[in-house]
Amino acid sequence: MNSVLQDVRYAFRSLVRSPGFTLAAVLTLAVGVGANTAVFSVVRGVLLRPLPYAEAHRLVSVVEEHAQEDVRLASYPTFEDWRRQSRVFDGLAFIRGLTVNFRSAEGPEQLIAGYVSPDFFRVVGASPVLGRRFSLDEQQSGGADVAVISHTLWRRRFGGKNAIGRTMAVADRTVTIVGVMPLGFSYPDWAALWMPITALPVAERAMLAERGLHVDSRVIGRLRAGLDLERARAEMNTLAERLAAAYPAESKGWTRVQLAPLAGEILGDTRSRLLILQATVLLVLLIGCANLANLSLARGSARARELAVRAALGASRRRLTQQLLVESSVLAAAGAVAGVLLAIWAVAALRSSAPDVVPRLGEVTVDWLVLGFTFLLSAAAAAAFGLLPTLRVSRPDLTASLTDGGAQAGVGARGSGTRGFLIVAEVALAMILLVGAGLLLKSFARLQQVQVGFETDRLLTLRVMPPSPRFDEPEQALALYQRLQETVAAVPGVEAVALTNHMPLTGASILTQVMVEGRPPEGRNETAALFRTISPEYFDTMQIALLSGRGLTTADLTSTSPSVVVNEAFVRSFWPGVDPIGRQLTVFKSVQRRADFGEPLTGTVVGVASNVHHFDQETDPVPEVYLPYPRNPPRWISLVVRTRLEPDLMVAPLRRAVLSVDPDLPVVGEDLFAGFATVEEYLAEGRAPRTLTTILLAVFAAIALLLAMIGLYGVVAYLVVLRQRELGLRMALGAQRADVLKLVLGRTMLLCLVGLALGALGALLLTRFMASLLFDVAHTDLATYAVGALALVGVTLAASYIPALRATRVDPVIALRSE
Amino acid sequence: MALAIDPLIRLNGISKVFHTEEVETHALSAIDLEIRAGEYLAISGPSGCGKTTLLSLLGLLDSPSEGSYVLAGEPVSGLSQAQRARVRSRAIGFIFQAFNLIGDLTVYQNIELPLKYRGMVPEERRSAVHGALDQVGLLHRINHYPAQLSGGQQQRVAVARAVAGRPLVVLADEPTGNLDSANGAQVMELLAELNRGGATICIVTHDPRYLDRVQRAVYLHDGRLVSDQPRDREVA
Q: Nearest-CA residue of chain B relative to A729?
């Protein structure tokens, strides 16, 4: 123990004496350990920490699956059948999501309410942190109007003060708050508050009874304890087959049920993104360790004589190894402390800059388990960079070290094999990272290049939710929409205004079945198109090109023979090679809660519009049918405003204009869709997870490249020092400067090429796992590999050129000196 | 190997001054020396007298501070570093006290190295290396690495490397300094044999036993040439 303390003291003295080495080592470790700790704390918080629900592993999300691999949300009657007839669940709950107007002292706003079936909180396994769940009575028809609100809404609207017993106006009623859910509870993630399903507006409740109606909802189940997922699936499939046979009109072909662990639904593709990031930072740490191993080797060689003297005086190999390991452990400890500080900062920065991009990010902290991980990581790093030099230095060649340098074995760099390995390792690791980052950057660039099909510049949109029941009737809604359009058009700075049921890129859409003239009905999927209702100004405002025919006109709004416009994708699917102008098609009215829901609507095609990416840039355009919006007045509508001025300047006057039409129209809210937002913001929001992953990976790859460059410089510079005598000899024997330059650069480049080959192979194997994150780029993309290789060749040349140049200045007289 | 130009080497008023910080060290002062082709010359003197400095000037590893150096009729004291390297690879063969074989090259590759720098084609190189190795009696060690040879054998390989390119002059710096007396004697015998074959050899030594084997010995003291005498040499 005494000897260890002595070694610790000696290590401190020795490290203080070499401030350059110590600083470089601690910084390298801090970056490596810090990045790993930060990413691991996110991995732990998001992936490893159980969901905040009792026995969360038993929770599954449940959807219907078609025999042809398609899925759909279950209708309420199907859910009821599942609940009553299946024996695989301890409980099954249905949540109907509905955007509602919520009115508080600060004015109206939009938020999404989850109307839940009885038993929801018990099924999920969560209870309010304040107040209580719904009582049995409250969940019966005619029960008291109550709500449980999310922690976020409680903090935002009630300042975190007591809210239990307070009332608020939600949708068509005034509800009493009976509970506040704990921080981190967010199921479904869009819900800001929960109410009994019996509190649904009357029209919505009536719709629930329809088996063929698949509204925005979730079904969550708690599997019976000990029941295996496969067995549960098999039993549910048997039930689905029975239901499909019993209700062929609504359920033909829907003979399977998909049960997926809830964690999967909540996390989406976050798991693969985080695991890739964790692998990335581990590679960065490995490169850092290679650098440190090299630095330690250089120091070790410089101290060979000192260690040889110690060994000659009787120090055992164990004693020498202990001394060197203590030194690397002291360094690792310093690096770990700096790394943890860096990680705490990085996690805080991530939480504040990207709270909505990574699910459960709010739950991420640097806790004891994370610190344990850091400790293990630092110990592993210390072993990785400390052990190699230790093995070499603790086995010193006494004769060589104590005499003239061992001329007997010939001149040359002893230990150049180890350093060669370090160069190969650094280049290979950096190549893997560069290829990974390169593929993501290329995907990102490809995605940016995807034209959405309309001009996104200076385009603002607002989803207008008319308060119920004042605007429930179609005529009332139409009058409101018209007034809104006229009022907004009159705002100075507005270039054009249009109305549409579902604005592209905002996530809203509804499909309709289509029957077309001259084409027999086919499979279910082949006859669906997006049901789009628009005002005549829509194509001009959006700047969507018309490929043939004309757009809709004001006359079409009231004409007795409806005109419709279809898009290019529609023509390709339904009338390939045929001129669609003048042909007839039939769609089905798709506005829910209207009396005419599902009625056929036949129209004549008057124009073909170019394609639009309705969902996001990654999803190909789908067939669309555009109809005049009064043909099927939507219950809520999107205003589309093209502005002359910067959109930022327009938001306030536009809000005022909307409120001047009706002060109960919500124009603010927590989510993007709840207020005026630019299309660019929707695009950015859609790309946010990809942007974050790409930025982080690019940053880590840049750090890796920098570390590799520093490492390569260090290795080559030290090799030149070690080979000084050999280089002098070669010059004495007639080598020109160019020969020496070629020798040093040639050997380094050869090692670099070996590293590149290994790195490319590693990248080929590892990037397969990120295939789901790539867009329009194969993981084998040759150009990315070539650019990565060129960058590393450039870095290697840059890093080794200065030491190589120094090598050409070796004085050949050195060859005449015997020491 | 001998050349018609006589003398092969002519030094006139050569001085070498080293400047370190504020100290000037006169390593060599006003050296006049001529070496004829085919001559076997020894430079001797006490430690620090300037022997190695003189050898490095003769070998064009360094340039004089003053004076002129004419090698085979060509003035070489004012050559650039690159030009000196070119002359070195063609006209001068080196043998070092510490052998200076490159550890990760084979015997063949070590001997071939200066020939490569000279730009000799591979076939010629192969024949020159084989000839030189044959001369030193180590043809059977052609694929060995230096570490696999004894000290005496390593120095014989170094001799082969020095003579393989048939240089105008072979410069040897204490060639027996790292050898025991038996191996030292063998190497000296090898050099004498090369000289008998026509090679011009200039060695630095302070071992009086080997002075008897040379034709002429110059003696340096404090950087000055204080004696230049022909030696009686045992002729085999």
A: B100
